[in-house]
Amino acid sequence: MWVLLRSGYPLRILLPLRGPWMGWRGLPRSLAVGPPRRRYRKEALAALEVPVLPVTATEIRQYLRAHGIPFQDGHSCVRAPSPFVGASKLKDETGAATSFSLFIDKTTGRFLCMTSLAEGSWEDFQASVEGRGDGAREGVLLSEAPEAEDSEEVQRIWDRAVPLWELPEPEEAQLARVMFGLTKVTDDTLKRFSVRYLRPAHSLVFPWFSPGGLGLRGLKLLGAEGQGDRVHYMETTIPQPGAFHNLFGLPLISRRDVEVVLTSRELDSLALSQSTGLPTLALPRGTACLPPVLLPYLEQFRRIVLWLGDDLRSWEAAKLFARKLNPKRCSLVRPGDQQPSPLEALNQGLNLSRILRTALPAWHKSIVSFRQLREEVLGELSNVEQAAGVRWSRFPDLNRLLKGHRKGELTVFTGPTGSGKTTFISEYALDLCTQGVNTLWGSFEISNVRLARVMLTQFAVGRLEEQLDKYDEWADRFEDLPLYFMTFHGQQSIRTVIDTMQHAVYVYDICHVVIDNLQFMMGHEQLSTDRIAAQDYIIGAFRKFATDSSCHVTLVIHPRKEDDDKELQTASIFGSAKASQEADNVLILQDRRLVTGPGKRYLQVSKNRFDGDVGVFPLEFNKSSLTFSIPPKSKARLKKIKDDNGLVAKKPSSGKKGAVPQISETHSDQAPNPNKADLSKPSR
Ligand SMILES: Nc1ncnc2c1ncn2[C@@H]1O[C@H](COP(=O)(O)OP(=O)(O)OP(=O)(O)O)[C@@H](O)[C@H]1O
């Protein structure tokens, strides 16, 4: 099965620096290698690669024992002698690590030989042990070797970039330092980390070297733009994000280092290293993901401190990453006034070592006291808006009622047959995905191709059939979204679906799973005599998954048969009351087409565990763009209601003061939304 590796990166951050002198990916035309290269792919979608048979750490150990292979149990990996060392010319310089240089991921079974850089699946490893041929590929740092064109481009940019202190104009160097907040970072630090500056692009250049100093494999370019009193950073990576993963700062790590500080930005690593002298590494995609392929490089550390940033999102990411790294060895620096990001701390003259000492252990047992929770509670209270989750950019009324989309919740969504549930939920999820919410779709009823077509139309807000010349532009942008699809179709067992979801959370840091719809998991339960019990069991499984994985699950459920002229209620959801009890949010697509005409629908929030606000607002269906979002001119008429039965208030949501709580629609703390500014025209 083919898999497209994804960055999980909000698009806008990757948008190139723009200007008349800019070429492909925002690089100066003179540096860009020819016209944009179109890679032909076997499939158009990022289908999720699931191991043929999921493997557990116990099975890995048992297998190694059964074949007489010695091993060491590590934090996230099992270490064993590598059968691939002899085959490689890339011998370790010191020769020290050639024993036990094979790292097998305890969760996925994928392996990496740190000496030869061979990598492969658990099945590849077994085949090699059993002499069934060598399925391992020789890779470079956890992914495929960069393509020749990328390597050339990397080298070309690197050669054109210069150390900051070698810039001919001192003013230019000073301006760059100010823009990037580097006034307190010394030349020596920049030199140790080999940071350069690309003059034509006004960008810092951070190199990614392969382990063992075998060469330059990739680059991250960081541009900065003043926006009021804030600086907006733009990143460009070569090779493209998702095609290559590496840790910035790797060459400075010694084999004897047992402690490391992980940051989400290269600039933070510079600040930390300079002021604390501790080993530090920067994650390639910031807080968006921690690809498991990087885990072997972090195995040597007995203690890992995650200091990812100064907002709640960084804190959430730190907690998720700690799970992968093994929480027992992780400590987290909590965002706060006196604990900004490392670079900011350096610039404010704070003591970074002292902040590191305040890091909280990520591990706690099943029972906690309020003492352990009090900091978390404070974090939520002092970041109310972020604690409310990611806000929709296309559905302001949903923000007013639900306040945002939060991790770890279960949303149940229902509506009459054929009312547009899939179409609506597609736009609802797409909206979040364009804001960096890593999303996994389980579409059991309609094919992934059809679903993607709907989504792409919604993404472009228009029929692409009539503008096929724009298809590639939109498809390229769509491809950059952190969006994955399960390849299931038709009936599936709940166990297989949950296993796949767990795998996706681990590998792609999925934060939102959409299941359309639950009825497709009921057939395999052999409980046709008691379909209600089967549904309760399935809902319980999704509830547990959402909580345990800190991942939001949106579950589409068909309603029970209702009179056509009556509106649906929470109790109309098929089955027992379990669905509405377990759900944090219940959304109902109300179809009042007889009264309101063909396009009109209403969305009712009939349960909201977060803060209790429930209500209903109109949706205007646009047949050409397949969107439900409220057109800008339309006056939203949000009604807050008490429950399914009675209205308690009837207030316009816009225009008049004192209506429903006014929440700013622009949301600077959230990840950027590439669609917001330029929905009407594609740009690259
Ligand atoms: N408000 C609307 N007005 C008119 N047509 C709509 C509306 N919403 C969706 N549609 C169209 O109706 C068709 C069915 O929509 P969709 O598949 O989203 O419904 P559904 O509720 O998920 O269906 P099912 O109950 O079969 O799962 C699609 O062709 C869609 O474009």
Automatic annotation (TrEMBL):
Bias (Polar residues): 663-673
Organism: Phocoena sinus
Phylogenetic placement of the source organism: Eukaryota, Metazoa, Chordata, Craniata, Vertebrata
Record function comment: Mitochondrial helicase involved in mtDNA replication and repair. Might have a role in mtDNA repair. Has DNA strand separation activity needed to form a processive replication fork for leading strand synthesis which is catalyzed by the formation of a replisome complex with POLG and mtSDB. Preferentially unwinds DNA substrates with pre-existing 5'-and 3'- single-stranded tails but is also active on a 5'- flap substrate. Can dissociate the invading strand of immobile or mobile D-loop DNA structures irrespective of the single strand polarity of the third strand.
Gene3D superfamilies referenced in this protein's UniProt entry, alphabetically: 3.40.1360.10, P-loop containing nucleotide triphosphate hydrolases
Xref: SUPFAM superfamilies: P-loop containing nucleoside triphosphate hydrolases
InterPro entries named among the record's database cross-references: DNA_helicase_DnaB-like_C, P-loop_NTPase, TOPRIM_DnaG/twinkle, Twinkle-like
Pfam family, any one: AAA_25
Membrane topology label: Peripheral membrane protein
Protein name in UniProt: Twinkle mtDNA helicase
Alphabetical keyword list: ATP-binding, DNA replication, Helicase, Hydrolase, Isomerase, Lipid-binding, Membrane, Mitochondrion, Mitochondrion inner membrane, Mitochondrion nucleoid, Nucleotide-binding, Transit peptide
Region of interest: Disordered: 642-684
Gene Ontology CC annotations of this record: mitochondrial chromosome; mitochondrial inner membrane
Catalytic activity, reaction form: ATP + H2O = ADP + phosphate + H(+)
Transmembrane intervals: none
Enzyme class, UniProt record, top EC level: isomerase
